[in-house]
Design brief:
Length: about 350
């Protein structure tokens, strides 16, 4: 069974903004913070901290070991001698260790994971960027048990959550209300550097708050070979969501860009774009509705472009009919400034 991993946030915000920040972390699925428990207020988050009141107590020099709580120690690793010290301390009954490495990050953590993974002491590493979070969770494929990440904004936390693979988006059922041929246009094929699986695709739409789950090309047909790395996403003007929560126009994607890949249940992971291919093709305009919200997409008129239906079933855009149900990610409209959400700004997109 795959080992569960955890992202622990060390808030780097002012005290006046802490309450709102903690509430946002909870809504994103964060469960633990590196914070004095006295500052948690009414939050349901639990703390890991050098305090006897914390749920996970970081022991300092000569501090007593509390009963009934998980305890650990923080170590700075500069040499192999430090690694041997960590192993000796762990064997004495530590539930977890927090590792801070300096210039050399990968090799020391590989050695620590190799030595500690059999004695059931959990390993937490510190990180100061989402990219460091990715490294920590992938070392030796096993990765560390948790990463303590300094975050000063909710977008930073979201970006790190995608590296963990625990970020998710609510998918809803939308009814197709209009399908129309709209002539030629430029569409974007997004070729990722990852293998995509059945049920996975990208969120694409003409409005930033109403995005269709467009399936990848792993299925193939009697006339086409599977392209399990590709999403024939939509027209150049369409939006997709980046790992940091901002939106990108499909026309902006290029080699090295990062995109979100979602499965049919809304669980997200990130993938790197290997190539973005823009070509002129016949296009379809498709509109769908949830309650009073109507959203649309312009996609290539071809059998290999598929939407995801409830239950993970696929439907080609060429077989789509009015009244069909497809999965979308939709929410109330908000403004955007260079892709960043502006929650209080009025916007109307048609």
């Amino acid at each position: 069974m795959e080992k569960s991993k955890e992202l622990v946030i060390l808030p780097k915000v002012s005290k006046s903004h802490l309450g709102k920040f903690l509430a946002s972390l909870e809504s994103e699925g964060i469960k633990t913070v590196y914070l004095d428990p006295k500052l948690l207020g009414k939050s349901k988050l639990v703390s890991i901290y050098p305090s006897q009141s914390a749920k996970y107590v970081v022991l300092e020099k000569d501090s007593p070991k509390p009963k009934g709580k998980k305890v650990g120690k923080k170590f700075t690793v500069l040499s192999n001698t430090d690694i041997e010290k960590i192993l000796d301390e762990a064997k004495k009954g530590l539930d977890f260790v927090i590792i801070e490495v300096k210039d050399w990050k990968i090799i020391p953590l590989e050695n620590i994971i190799a030595k500690l993974h059999k004695i059931h002491t959990e390993i937490y590493a510190t990180a100061r960027s989402p990219e460091e979070v990715r490294k920590m969770f992938s070392i030796l494929e096993i990765g560390v048990d948790g990463v303590i990440f300094e975050a000063s904004s909710i977008n930073e936390a979201r970006e790190a959550l995608v590296y963990l693979g625990s970020s998710s988006f609510e998918l809803q059922e939308a009814k197709i209300i209009d399908i129309k041929e709209v002539g030629d246009g430029e569409r974007v094929c997004v070729d990722t550097a990852s293998m995509l699986h059945r049920g996975e695709g990208m969120l694409i739409g003409s409005r930033s708050n109403f995005l269709f789950l467009v399936h990848n090309e792993s299925v193939g047909s009697s006339f086409t070979s599977p392209r399990p790395f590709r999403v024939n996403a939509g027209a150049v003007h369409c939006y997709t969501i980046a790992p940091d929560g901002t939106t990108k126009y499909l026309s902006e994607l290029e080699t090295g860009s990062e995109v979100l890949i979602l499965d049919s249940k809304g669980k997200a992971r990130r993938a790197t774009v290997g190539r973005s291919k823009i070509e002129r093709r016949p296009m379809l305009m498709i509109k769908a509705q949830i309650g009073d919200e109507v959203g649309g997409i312009i996609a290539q008129d071809a059998e290999t472009i598929r939407f995801v239906k409830p239950g993970g079933h696929l439907v080609s855009v060429t077989h789509l009919k009015k009244g069909d149900i497809v999965m979308v990610h939709a929410k109330s409209a908000t403004g955007r400034h260079f892709g960043m959400e502006v929650s209080d700004e009025y916007i109307l997109e048609k």
